[in-house]
Amino acid sequence: MNYLNEEKRIRIRYLGMHIMFKGKYVKQILHGEKITTVRLGIVKPKYDEVIIHGGGRPICKAKITRVEHKMVKQLSDTDAIKDGFKNLLNLLE
Known about the structure:
Layout: H1 3-8, E1 12-15, E2 18-21, H2 26-30, E3 42-45, E4 49-54, E5 57-63, H3 77-82, H4 88-92
Parallel strand pairs: 1-3, 2-4
Antiparallel strand pairs: 4-5
């Protein structure tokens, strides 16, 4: 694998005031089981407080306290569990 080409494909995206999630994650978010989200590329928030949407509707407000940038190979089971998955393999699927 050519890591130079991989680095060139990294996208920087800016996160607005609204963060969208699939409806299947609403309960986990509201119960505090899903406290992080893994997104592809470099994501930089414009705001520290955001509105979380699940299943096409607003469900709550959230405060972004920290953003970490990791390569997929740096993710761990702990990252996956905080994102509401059983383990890393489950997250990657």
